[in-house]
Specification:
The complex is a heterodimer. By secondary structure, chain A is mainly beta. Chain A has no helices and twelve strands. In chain A, the strands form three sheets. In chain A, strands 2, 5, 6, 10, 11 and 12 form a six-stranded mixed beta sheet that branches. Chain A has a four-stranded antiparallel beta sheet with strand order 3-9-8-7, with no helix packed on it. In chain A, strands 1-4 form a two-stranded antiparallel ribbon. In chain A, strand 10 and strand 11 form a beta hairpin. Chain B contains no helices and eleven strands. The mean pLDDT of chain B is 94. Helix content of chain B is 0%, strand content 50%. The chains are: A mainly beta, B mainly beta. Chains A and B meet through strand 5, strand 6, strand 10 and strand 11 of A and strand 5, strand 9 and strand 10 of B.
Chain lengths: 116, 114
C-alpha cells in the first residue's frame, strides 16, 4: 500500500471553478507532518503548506485552503476560483520519523489543468 | 529576496563518471536537503543535512552518493559512479529551522547519464 495516495492523476477545470485535490496518507506514527508542494510547468518546486499531526485546524491562504482530518487520514487541498496560473502538478508529502529526524514520502502528484 | 541556487542547470555525463551537483542554500538556513525527480515521476527524498552531518537518508542514498558542505556556503551532492537510472532532476532545498519552517527549493539540476 502506498503511504501517500493522490488518487486523482489529472484534473481539468475551467477558470473560476473550485477544485479539490485529495491526499490520503497512512502512518503508524503519532507525530508526523504533512506538506503540499506545487510544481508549475517551469519545473521548480514550491512549498505551499505544512501541518503537524497535532494541528487539525484548517487553514486558508487567499484562494487556497486545506482540510486536515486525522479521522480519515486525509489532507485535502482546495483552490477556490481557480486561475490559469494554478495549472501545475501538486504533490502531497508525509514526513514521518521521531526525535527531530523525519523522512518524506511523496504522493505521485495530481496534475491540475485550468482552462481559460 | 534570498534564493537557493544550483549549478549547473544541466549536466550530461557518461555512465560510470563522477558528478558533483552544487547548491548554495540561503545564508542563514541550517537545514539542507536533496531530492530527485525522474522525468514525469514523483519527487523522491535523498538526504537531509544539519550541523555538518547527515540527519536522514533514504534507501536511494547508497554508498554511491555523498554530500558535503565544503566551505560554509556550498552544499554538494556527489554521485561517484553514475548509472543510467541516475538520470533525473535533482533539487536542493534549505530551511531555517527544519520542518518548522518553510523549505525553499533551488531551480534544479537536470542530470542526463548516457
Amino acid at each position: 500500500a502506498q503511504k501517500v495516495t493522490q488518487a486523482q492523476t489529472e484534473i481539468s477545470v475551467v477558470e473560476k471553478e473550485d477544485v479539490t485535490l485529495d491526499c490520503v496518507y497512512e502512518t503508524r506514527d503519532t507525530t508526523y507532518y504533512l506538506f503540499w508542494y506545487k510544481q508549475p510547468p517551469s519545473g521548480e518546486l514550491v512549498f505551499l503548506i505544512r501541518r503537524n499531526s497535532f494541528d487539525e485546524q484548517n487553514e486558508i491562504s487567499g484562494r487556497y485552503s486545506w482540510n486536515f482530518q486525522k479521522s480519515t487520514s486525509s489532507f485535502n487541498f482546495t483552490i477556490t476560483a481557480s486561475q490559469v496560473v494554478d495549472s501545475a502538478v501538486y504533490f502531497c508529502a508525509l514526513w514521518e520519523g521521531s526525535g527531530g529526524s523525519y523522512i518524506p514520502t511523496f504522493g505521485r502528484g495530481t496534475s491540475l489543468i485550468v482552462h481559460p | 529576496e534570498p534564493e537557493v541556487t544550483q549549478t549547473p542547470s544541466h549536466q550530461v555525463t557518461q555512465m560510470g563518471q563522477e558528478v558533483i551537483l552544487r547548491c548554495v542554500p540561503i545564508s542563514n538556513h541550517l537545514y539542507f536537503y536533496w531530492y530527485r525527480q525522474i522525468l514525469g515521476q514523483k519527487v523522491e527524498f535523498l538526504v537531509s543535512f544539519y550541523n555538518n552531518e547527515i540527519s536522514e537518508k533514504s534507501e536511494i542514498f547508497d554508498d554511491q552518493f555523498s554530500v558535503e558542505r565544503p566551505d560554509g556556503s556550498n552544499f554538494t551532492l556527489k554521485i561517484r559512479s553514475t548509472k543510467l537510472e541516475d538520470s533525473a532532476m535533482y533539487f536542493c532545498a534549505s530551511s531555517e529551522l527544519g520542518l518548522k519552517e518553510t523549505q525553499y527549493f533551488g531551480p534544479g539540476t537536470r542530470l542526463l547519464v548516457l
